[in-house]
Design goal:
Elements lengths: L47 H10 L2 E3 L2 H6 L6 H7 L10 E4 L3 H14 L3 E4 L16 E4 L6 E5 L4 E5 L4 H12 L1 E2 L12 H6 L7 H4 L2 H4 E7 L5 E5 L11 H4 L8 E8 L1 E2 L4 E8 L2 H13 L6 E5 L1 H8 L5 E8 L2 H16 L3 E2 L2 H11 L16 E11 L3 H13 L4 E11 L3 E11 L5 H16 L6 E2 L14 H5 L1 H13 L19
Parallel strand pairs: 2-4, 3-4
Antiparallel strand pairs: 1-2, 5-6, 6-10, 7-11, 8-9, 8-10, 12-14, 12-15, 13-14, 13-17, 16-18, 16-19, 17-18
Length: about 525
Amino acid sequence: MISKDAITRGYNHGDYIVGAPTPPAYAAAITHIGTEAGLAHHTVTVSESVVDRLRAIADQVFTSREDIVINTRDWWSGTKISETSGRPAVTEGVFVRVSHVEQVQAIMKLAHMHRIPVTASAGRSNVTGAALPLRGGIILDLFGLNRFLGFERESQLAEVEAGLFGDVFETRIQKEYGMTMGHWPSSFGISTIGGWIACRGAGQLSTRYGKIEDMVHTIDVVLADGSLVTLGGYPRAANGPDLKQIFIGSEGTLGIVVRARLKLHKLPEYARSLCFGFPSFAAGLEACRLIMQRGGTPAVLRLYDALESRIQFDYPKTNLLLIADEGPEEIVDACMEICKTICETRSETLPANAVFERWLDTRYTTEKPSEGFVVNDGFVADTLEMAGSWACLPEIYEKVVAAINAIPGTLAGSAHQSHAYLEGACVYFSLRAELKPEERADWYKEVWESVNSVLMQYRFNITISHHHGIGLLRGPYMRPSLGAGYDILLAIKKALDPLNLLNPGKMGFPLADEQ
């Protein structure tokens, strides 16, 4: 038995800045900022007259090269490799801070008039380069839009601005209303609600509470011309496609999310955990499939392969499955009984409390090296998450890990299943390498191309991203992944943003001069 508050209330602020962007760990090692940009190209210079107009609209405006580099730096390994090689990802633009929706509208109208690209930014915890201003222009910082606007108790809806950080929001709704959103990503303390929506994020308890697209009731979006639209506002509908879902996951390329109404849940009063060891990753996946298709939906259903079981939990000879749930006692007990019945005959039982407590201690750790790997100038670590059907996941796991390990310089490839559904699951791969510093970029490109060449073999049964989004990293794989769907997505982009001003070059979309 675990304590009633172990999952939902079991967090702390850790080593990050509460309520503001937190620099990634690699930033502390940077002693100088290079002059050459590593990723930006075809940049647009903002005239002095427009800068003056921005100063009249915004709270703060920064234009120096150092300010641009520091205030666009994110958690993506590609940014880290570039900047620690003396070439910051981007170096040009105007960094603009705002704190009101009307300012966002005014800036978009100004940008539209002068054909200036605008990249929305906030927590900058993204790991795919989704908020890097490739073409310079205006970097619109939204973390000043951080107001809690209200709570409707009967419908259990909270209204917030998009720049509110996750931990600040969760603390307030727990203390004042006895509620939780149930959204607990690893970036919980360094990311904003707007970022969750923009990248279509998932939390660690998604099997119980859903992903972010399941939690958004209403969103307010500023479009490329500065107009404000409200989408959603009802529990279900049959009046055409759900238009708010077009913007959830669009990474600021179709519009800028500025407010949202979110579905909440009462804080759970009861929780339990179970733990089992399986002889193979495939056997563990099969147990997870049976649990989901039997009707079990535990908040945590996480399967670790043998390498990660050793690193995370000191179980080197098994594939560890951690199961935990929270909520009304009768529902949790019924769910745990389903899980126990399925797993007991297929695996060995492990001490659940010790494993669960260890997971709780490390689940929000960001950019912490895996045990046994020495971090130095040539060390590279990254993650790749995808989702696929149960039928193909065991084979994908084997092929992807083999592809990672086949690249010279790789230390280890490993994986865990992090989120499960009726028809399939998300498998979250870890990539690690030990190289000469000047070899990092080539290894990084090769390993991503190698893995995605495997995934494209299954493109009708998988998605190339489950919750990290697309950004720059996955952009090249969008067309082959979506097929004819890519042309539909591109048509929506051209309709909503015909000048291609919003976050150009992301989501696989072309830069303005490539259209």
